[in-house]
């Protein structure tokens, strides 16, 4: 909610219960103080909040959109008795078509009507997905075409939504916007509860009534979207990962799985493509290493070295390793559900990584690490191994993307995004209509009770502790107000 409803046509700074100020002065002062914070919070983040809502609404339709746009690449037609060619042969076809590329992973078809997707590492793509997906007809092994994942429409939408196409700086701005959106929601709920405008269906009163009512109606869903989006952010998300690790609510301990590498890498470094990566809860799992035997220690294979694909794993698998078909068969044996991705071994000590993600049901997620020579399951990580916090995050991600409960989930998420856009626009219109020309921002007046002001500041700072970037910005705002605005008369009149 970008601006709270005012209850007076002529005096926008008048709070509720104006006739009983003497009886309940502290409540009215609290209303004014929170209204002022609500006003300036809306002024601070409205443009980026609208961008978040617009891009989020568009990204909800990513699966449907890409299945439609890339239908000729993702679907195949074959006779009833047609049999797929070996996966190794399909990967070899990709390698011949793009000999300069590095094979990263293979996503086998989910059914007889879909093609095989081979992902290549690529430079120059987007920062979140520098990969190229090559699609292969599973029945004749012919390459159907390729897509640069870093340059697709939906990837640009995702980067706008997550980092404004500006890397870490944009990520921090979007995290700040999401944090202030939560504060807007909390303060708006209080203002709605105190005022609850019931009269006026047209004009300025009607707009205020609509703004407040819609804001209250979607507040729970909006807070849920904010909470489930923050784990992807830089600062808040990293701190959450640290809490999960410290409380052992995420990855298993080192004693659970033997990791022979001296500097163990984690699963989030296997690929930067969000469509072929491991689930969020498995990103910090330490990747084990294969134990080479039979003279394989001397081979210096690397990712992308295909060699002779027949009978070997391909990609960076060393000579003597399992075929990719065998790795897929082991994944089925371990009951990895649905569509999964096989990330190929990186060098002679690398492992096959099988990543099965399910946004519709996070309980079906599973991540396997297979020894590339023996096929031994070095680690099997899924819902039973997730800690409580990891489970909550995975459920939240599914809800955030509108996939957990199918169409109802998607429609609620879409409706919330549209409501945010509507409240932002209505807030700006309300402010513009009542803003006296030449008299500054026309912000709600300061609360005159110093105790109320200090109390509200303390509440806001507590919220700021939970959302660090918002907390830092609050301190800067308070210092600017105390040291500059209150001491310079023109600024004091402008900001109110």
Oligomer: single chain
Number of strands: 8
Instruction: Spell out the helices and strands N to C.
Output: HHHHEEEEHHHHHEEEEHHHHH
Radius of gyration, in angstroms, nearest whole number: 27 Å
Topology:
Layout: H1 25-59, H2 62-69, H3 71-74, H4 87-97, E1 102-107, E2 116-126, E3 129-136, E4 143-148, H5 153-163, H6 167-195, H7 203-229, H8 235-246, H9 324-333, E5 340-343, E6 351-356, E7 366-371, E8 377-382, H10 388-400, H11 407-434, H12 450-466, H13 468-483, H14 489-495
Antiparallel strand pairs: 1-2, 1-5, 2-3, 3-4, 5-6, 6-7, 7-8
Helix pairs in contact: 1-5, 1-6, 1-11, 5-6, 6-7, 7-10, 7-11, 12-13
Walk me through what this model shows.
With 496 residues, this protein is α+β, with helices and mostly antiparallel strands. It has 2 domains: 1-76 and 149-249 and 390-496, no CATH class; 81-138 and 251-386, no CATH class. The chain is built from 14 helices and 8 strands. Helix 1 (25-59) packs across helix 11. The relative contact order is 0.14. The model is unreliable at 1-14, 17-23, 257-264 and 294-315 (pLDDT under 50).
Keyword list:
single chain, 496 residues, alpha+beta, 2 domains, eight-stranded antiparallel β-sheet, 8 strands, 46% helix, elongated
Describe the structure concisely.
The protein has helices spanning 25-59, 62-69, 71-74, 87-97, 153-163, 167-195, 203-229, 235-246, 324-333, 388-400, 407-434, 450-466, 468-483, 489-495, and strands spanning 102-107, 116-126, 129-136, 143-148, 340-343, 351-356, 366-371, 377-382. It is of the alpha+beta class and 496 residues long.
């Amino acid at each position: 909610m970008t601006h709270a409803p005012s209850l007076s046509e002529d005096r926008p700074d008048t709070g509720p219960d104006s006739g009983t100020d003497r009886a309940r002065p502290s409540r009215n002062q609290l209303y004014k103080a929170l209204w002022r914070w609500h006003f300036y919070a809306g002024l601070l983040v409205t443009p980026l909040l609208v961008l978040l809502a617009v891009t989020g609404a568009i990204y909800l339709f990513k699966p449907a959109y890409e299945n439609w746009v890339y239908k000729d690449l993702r679907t195949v037609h074959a006779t009833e008795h047609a049999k797929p060619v070996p996966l190794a042969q399909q990967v070899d076809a990709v390698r011949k078509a793009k000999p300069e590329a590095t094979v990263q992973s293979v996503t086998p078809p989910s059914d007889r009507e879909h093609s095989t997707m081979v992902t290549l590492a690529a430079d120059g793509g987007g920062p979140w997905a520098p990969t190229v997906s090559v699609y292969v007809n599973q029945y004749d092994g012919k390459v159907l075409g390729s897509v640069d994942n870093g340059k697709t429409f939906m990837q640009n939408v995702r980067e706008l939504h997550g980092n404004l196409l500006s890397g870490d700086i944009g990520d921090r701005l979007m995290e700040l916007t999401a944090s202030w959106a939560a504060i807007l929601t909390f303060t708006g709920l209080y203002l709605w509860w105190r005022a609850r405008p019931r009269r006026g269906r047209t004009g300025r009163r009607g707009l205020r009534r609509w703004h407040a009512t819609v804001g209250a109606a979607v507040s729970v869903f909006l807070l849920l979207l904010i909470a489930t989006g923050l784990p992807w952010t830089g600062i808040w998300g990293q701190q959450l990962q640290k809490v999960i690790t410290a409380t052992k609510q995420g990855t298993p301990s080192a004693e659970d799985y033997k990791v022979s590498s001296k500097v163990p890498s984690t699963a989030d470094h296997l690929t930067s493509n969000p469509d072929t990566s491991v689930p969020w809860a498995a990103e910090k799992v330490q990747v084990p290493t294969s134990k080479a035997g039979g003279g394989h220690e001397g081979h210096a294979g690397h990712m992308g070295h295909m060699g002779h694909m027949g009978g070997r794993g391909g990609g960076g698998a060393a000579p003597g390793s399992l075929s990719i078909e065998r790795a897929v068969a082991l994944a089925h044996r371990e009951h990895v559900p649905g569509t999964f991705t096989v990330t190929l071994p990186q060098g002679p000590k690398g492992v096959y990584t099988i990543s099965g993600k399910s946004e519709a049901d996070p309980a079906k997620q599973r991540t396997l690490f297979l020894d590339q020579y023996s096929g031994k399951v070095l680690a099997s990580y899924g819902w039973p191994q997730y800690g409580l916090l990891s489970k909550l995050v995975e459920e939240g991600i599914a809800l955030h993307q509108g996939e957990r409960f199918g169409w109802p989930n998607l429609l609620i998420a879409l409706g919330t995004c549209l409501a945010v856009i509507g409240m932002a626009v209505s807030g700006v219109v309300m402010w513009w209509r009542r803003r006296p020309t030449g008299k500054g921002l026309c912000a709600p007046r300061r609360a005159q009770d110093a105790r109320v002001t200090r109390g509200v500041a303390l509440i806001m700072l507590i919220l700021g502790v939970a959302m660090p970037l918002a907390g830092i910005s609050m301190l800067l705002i308070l210092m600017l107000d105390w040291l500059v605005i209150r001491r310079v008369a023109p600024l004091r009149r402008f900001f109110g």
